[in-house]
């Protein structure tokens, strides 16, 4: 299975752009991936991301707004679901 870093471009092209998400939505997903997810989980295989990893990510984002945290977690969740398909 691919790492989060390797899967991110496929997710943006094969899911977000292929499903005709708005450019602003694609940009938001790209920023969430580059700024928040890759530094924390980029080298982890997608099937190796655990609840503990998600809790660490949430702790790292604790200074951000609730909306930002929810957006980042939503992108991560969708990436993992798309990867399973």
Secondary-structure topology with pairs:
Blueprint: H1 4-17, H2 23-41, H3 51-60, H4 66-84
Q: What does this protein structure show overall?
A:
The chain is mostly helical. 73% of the residues lie in helices and 0% in strands. The protein has helices spanning 4-17, 23-41, 51-60, 66-84. It is globular and about 30 Å long.
Features:
mainly alpha; 73% helix; 0% strand; single chain; 85 residues
What's a quick, concise take on this entry?
This protein has 85 residues and is mostly helical. It has helices at 4-17, 23-41, 51-60, 66-84.
Strand content: under 5%
Radius of gyration: 12 Å
Can you write the helix and strand succession as a string? HHHH
**Average pLDDT across residues?**
94
The end-to-end span amounts to 12 Å
Biggest sheet architecture: none
Can you give the helix content as a percent range?
over 70%
**What gross morphology would you assign?**
globular
* Number of separate strands: 0
Number of helices: 4
Give unreliable regions as ranges: none
What is the structural class?
Answer: mainly alpha
């Amino acid at each position: 299975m691919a790492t989060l870093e390797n899967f991110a471009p496929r997710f943006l092209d094969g899911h977000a752009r292929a499903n005709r998400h708005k450019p602003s939505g694609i940009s938001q997903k790209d920023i969430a991936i580059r700024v928040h997810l890759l530094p924390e989980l980029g080298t982890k295989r997608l099937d190796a991301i655990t609840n503990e990893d998600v809790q660490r990510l949430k702790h790292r984002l604790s200074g951000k707004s609730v909306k930002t945290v929810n957006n980042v977690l939503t992108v991560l969740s969708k990436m993992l679901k798309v990867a399973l398909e």
